[in-house]
DNA sequence: CAATGTTTGATTGTGCACAATCATTTTTGT
DNA sequence: ACAAAAATGATTGTGCACAATCAAACATTG
């Protein structure tokens, strides 16, 4: 006999359901969609919301630092930040001490959004029905994967 | 006294590092980047690769079915599939029995890519240093989240 | 059968995401 | 001081991703 038990036949490796990558791709997009109704009333997109998370904490950051934290390059950030500048949420200005750097600084209209956003994380978390221990292991594994991939 | 232990001060909820959403967003993009060098030699993008995973398994699917599996709408799929059609990887044709449906069928050039792609999943998995039990719980949690979010 | 509603893709417009390239500024080595 | 190298953003071009709208084909109901 010697039929292999469940050896993952060569083709099975290429089935969508057996991929680890696809659930990440799908969950990431569905999560963004879950935020959308909350962010829409504030007039901002999900990547813009991530920029705000950093600015609400640090008040001021260079494009370089934003890119390092968010793992985004200037080709993504520059137009995104220009749109946020147009809405008076932040200012873009060169660092006088190093004219290569562009400093992104929170403006009052951007600061004002913080209090309207502070309930969003819990609203989203509630939708996922994760127990605290599940959430902990999930956080740990995501962090581990991110370090492996960067 | 009565200082709360680590009550997650209101502001902490809005710190990037405390978000669950960001790791998903970041891991998803970094995973796509990890695939990129392997997919580039085949001339395809990550979403196109996902379409192929389904076509290699099913040979023929409607746009509707592709969208249901991948959680993508026609605004994303139609131009993507047209690019894949131009490369002779697949054909797009109306179903004679229901003219609303468009049938996507694998063509020889698309079938030929399968054997060149079958090692990719393991190459990526190897980069992540996950133990089999870690991988199992991760799969389970991702699946759980996806059902919660859809 | 005719009117109504539903299903299915296509189209349009906006906003990322990223590779590749370029220009400017700063730093470093001599 | 000066040339070479590195750092930092901006720009350009391609390809998703998705909301909103539209059009055609099918199904349903009276």
- Cross-sheet strand order for the largest sheet of chain A: 1-3-2
Oligomer: homodimer
Individual helix count of chain A:
7
Structural class, from helix and strand content of chain A? alpha+beta
Radius of gyration of chain A: 20 Å
* Proportion of residues in extended strands of chain A: 5-15%
Average predicted local confidence, pLDDT of chain A = 91
Q: Could you name the CATH homologous superfamily of the domain at 33-119 in chain A?
A: Winged helix-like DNA-binding domain superfamily/Winged helix DNA-binding domain
Low-confidence runs of chain A (pLDDT<50, min 5 residues)? 2-8
Most extensive chain interface and residues per partner? A-B, 58 and 58 residues
Biggest sheet architecture of chain A = 3 strands, antiparallel
- The CATH architecture of the domain at 33-119 in chain A can be named as Orthogonal Bundle
The residue fraction in helices of chain A comes out at: 55-70%
Distance between the termini of chain A: 45 Å
- The count of strands of chain A amounts to 3
- At the fold tier of CATH, the topology name of the domain at 33-119 in chain A is Arc Repressor Mutant, subunit A
> Overall 3D geometry of chain A?
globular
CATH class of the domain at 33-119 in chain A: Mainly Alpha
Order of helices and strands of chain A: HHEHHEEHHH
Subcellular location (chains A, B): Cytoplasm
Keywords (chains A, B): Cytoplasm, DNA-binding, Transcription, Transcription regulation
Main location (chains A, B): cytoplasm
Pfam family, one (chains A, B): MarR
């Amino acid at each position: 006999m010697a039929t292999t038990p469940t050896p993952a036949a060569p083709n099975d490796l290429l089935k969508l359901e057996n991929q680890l990558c696809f659930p990440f791709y799908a969950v990431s997009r569905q999560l963004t969609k879950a935020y959308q109704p909350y962010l829409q009333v504030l007039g901002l997109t999900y990547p813009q919301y991530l920029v705000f998370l950093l600015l609400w904490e640090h008040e001021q950051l260079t494009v370089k630092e934003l890119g390092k934290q968010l793992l985004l390059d200037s080709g993504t950030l520059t137009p995104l930040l220009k749109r946020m500048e147009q809405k008076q949420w932040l200012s873009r200005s060169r660092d006088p001490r190093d004219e290569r750097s562009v400093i992104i600084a929170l403006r009052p209209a951007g600061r004002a959004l913080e209090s309207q956003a502070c309930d969003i994380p819990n609203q989203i978390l509630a939708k996922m029905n994760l127990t605290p221990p599940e959430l902990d292991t999930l956080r740990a594994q995501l962090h581990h994967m991110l370090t492996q991939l960067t």
